């Protein structure tokens, strides 16, 4: 593989796929952190992730045939086990031990497939981010996937910033320019693996995406957002809308409160493109499938607003990789996150050199 | 910006746009001499040209919103004045002085927008080429724009050469192979900023584009062409058709004479693509709009004949940048022009080093 | 021309075109071994191959006009003879001796145009591979052309290998997985300029492509294949199907035997794309044109099965040029061929240095 210049944090779990992408025997060819990988679910139910290049003549294994939990390259018929070892060569009895392809640790959780492209010894499933709503039956959602032609950190920047809501998402997620001009950025709470930010917006109109799934659309709401951005690139956002003026900010249990839980996973495809997985969950009327559908549509619409501008940023850097950015006060969260990420990257490289 | 290798003459005026490209509030994103630029007409009528990248996070300002003469980046809401200075940051009171984007001097003349990408101190509007027919009501024309996937000097070469008329434009601008084989190249008059060439073609058939807009199509004509090629890449061609044999070459005022004035402006987009602006003006029946339309169609047809071959040349150089050309006698004009251009480029680089 | 890194064997004949590609005055622009070349048949019937770039301003001669055996560049009218010499410059009497474009030796044989891009002194037509069925009226076929987005050696590898038949071509050329698992690779006979391999397959079903053109489809056959792979990239395959069990392997003349002769020529276009010419000939019912058509369809279908996987291999190398392959026992033929090719390449480079 071309040297990745140490730009990726490899000792980390990334979402490789939504598990529904592997139904019906699908062999999913997906580049992850600039590694070509084939993913499939074997006959035993186990999910397998292998280098998507036969070690013999480089034919993609994703053009091969799954046999049990194994996969056979359909060029010359070599067969590989789930651990990547070559276990059959047509017309040849002895199989040299070095014959095989790289196998990647995978964990299936939250209806997603997590992958580890770094040192397999360190692939501890406990390191996967804990976000219970993704498996709690109280919450309902419809997971989504989008592809960005942009470096993942540009998406992290976007999600680290609440100021852009007013300018990019007025008609989808809501956000008011007038409010933006008057409001100071909210301080972030620095975490070891990211940051947390809490924001309240009292007595406001319900934003468009919320209005679409409620009946009392004209009522004012008190909105609370708690966002977390976690290394290497996971964003969660816990949102609550309570009827306005009933003391939800003081801890009152306000009837008619509606909550959302939102998890977004950025997985670098290459240094200039990103897989984006997300699920926007709600806790009301969960047996009405139209709510999850409506929310997915609304969020997709909003993400596409971001995507337009993020991919435009990427094009600027494609033409002029050295273009220097100038920070403003509102950049504290993204600046902190990029600093944290760089520190983690240095630590990983230092450990690799020491080893 | 990626280093442009000193291939562009920057201290010069280039056409950035036809002024009709900025009607209806259009924000025109156009790369000029490898600089991404946004052009718009502000509320005051002033034309503004700014770097098309927000200094904050590199989002294109052409995706922004014009407010008066200012423009607001619609990612995080930063607002820039016509001189490029940042004048508002939502949620932040103090604006660091260094915050801003590059602004480019522009001059509106001849229904075109001229831009200066070099040292702004030297942007003297008097340096814009004087070509009065472009604003004289006696002349009428319909300006045109074409995009070439070719280095601008290949277009300059093309226009510096009259020999190709016979082979490329027989059916449009006219030109006879038989004549080409018999005729020697005409000497050019060397100018400080380019060259001038005068050619007479006596008692010939009217060329196809001229025939389409006159009634006496079968009559022979005495044709005079005076071409000028000016640094950095402007070509003017003054053409007169007089009824043949009546002494126009001796200065006689021959009734029925028809004249054209033609100005062509080459603006490098990148080192391998070019914006081409032109206007072909006529001095007869100027209230009949079909004449200007017919001439624009004819010239576009002819330019497309050139474009096919010029873009094919570019592809040869794309594959083999070192391909060596061999000059012939007819190349004297283009050889002189390239020499002059190189000298001007050296002078500009020398001045930059001295400064 | 960009340096080709010494990856091509230049002192060799390659197929440049099928001769029917030059009918009706066609000027064929084709890149061969990374050289842009124009091919045409002159008025005398002679086939001409010239550098497809005018020496004057690099305009493609393939956009020019054939005049007799000469070609005229239709930019400025320069005319070139079949040997590449410039023989006319409009408006100029003296023609400098160095003016001209490179001309390539060509030989028309077997309804194909062979070209030599190396040292013209060494272009001996006797070096063209002798394969008599291509001109023997006893054999009938319909030649084909395909374009591969892959390095030619990946196609050579493919054809050097019989193991892939079972996995890639089960439904076209035939090949049984069960048989593949049981069978050892057949030893090759090493030749000075390639290798030869002979394989027998006794009492088997006729393969699909053969079944389509015979009436007794259910009968078992004894199949013999003799393959030869020749430097720089020519593959021939002589195939015979005899009714099974009648002693064809002992030399018996078995009635009802059907034979094929197959020649395939790989000509590098660039280091990552290839022209592929082929003819699959048969010796029965030669006046029934549907047999040649059926065989061409069948082979095209099979080659497209290869093309899918070969172009996928190329993409792996495009992304990761240093990807290391691991050989298995069945690779002996391709390993030998690549070794032979490298030795020939070294010899050519050594001779070039000595000269």
TrEMBL record, chains A, B, C:
InterPro entries cross-referenced by the UniProt entry: ARHD_Rieske_2Fe_2S (IPR015881), Cholesterol_7-desaturase (IPR050584), Rieske_2Fe-2S (IPR017941), Rieske_2Fe-2S_sf (IPR036922), VanA_C_cat (IPR044043)
Keyword Iron-sulfur attributed: yes
Ranges of residues in domain Rieske: 13-115
SUPFAM superfamilies, per database record: Bet v1-like, ISP domain
UniProt keyword terms in alphabetical order: 2Fe-2S, Dioxygenase, Iron, Iron-sulfur, Metal-binding, Oxidoreductase
PROSITE patterns reported for this sequence: RIESKE, RING_HYDROXYL_ALPHA
This protein's record includes keyword Glycosyltransferase: no
Molecular function via GO: 2 iron, 2 sulfur cluster binding; dioxygenase activity; iron ion binding
Superkingdom: Bacteria
Name of the protein in its database record: Aromatic ring-hydroxylating dioxygenase subunit alpha
